[in-house]
Amino acid sequence: MAFELPPLPYPKNALEPHMSANTLDFHHGKHHQAYVTNLNNLVKGSPMENQSLEEIIKATHNDSSKTGVFNNAAQVWNHTFFWNCMKPGGGGNPSGDVAAAIDRDLGGLAKFKEDFKARAVGQFGSGWAWIVAQGGKLSITSTPNAGTPLAQGQTAVLTCDVWEHAYYLDYQNRRPDFVQAFLDHLINWDFVGKNLSGAK
Predict the structure, then answer these.
(1) What is the DSSP string of 23-34?
(2) Annotation: CATH topology of 21-84
(3) What is the CATH topology of the domain spanning 96-197?
(4) Which residue of 54, 59, 150, 159 lies most exposed, with the fewest beta carbons within 10 A?
(5) What's the pLDDT band for 198 if we cut at 50, 70, 90?
């Protein structure tokens, strides 16, 4: 069964003014769609055609002969996860278990924002900044290109896409401004809470 582009969890203009409908039109409708199309073409007629995205990512991440498959599968997964990390009227302060975990493992909300922004802005070239859970503890990390915590045995809790196509139409070269807007106005803390409750 062919992979399909999942719909956005909100209307294209719902994240304005922090992320424009124009950006989502290109980022979701063109970039994310291209990864889905490429993946379908790459796995067609192979045993992977009937595997889940997660199975494909785990099976191909260390196989240099399957780099194209990994890159496209991981980008489909990463983007789907990223859309859900945001919501209209997002940002603000987390509460409950999420706030407690950030206090315990990441030094509190202000320190988390500072460290996450530094990691996102400092990611050279294209990639992703993450909160991940492993062994019952949260940490901040980043991955280049299509890298994903899923391939490292970690549970993704939050991500920010720092490929240029994620922000260039709205912020041009101002990646720090984009990451700050993500932190202050876009994070879906409810989704973070669900990921945290399912983490090992």
Answers:
(1) HHHHIIIIIIHH
(2) Helix Hairpins (1.10.287)
(3) minor pseudopilin epsh fold (3.55.40)
(4) 54
(5) confident
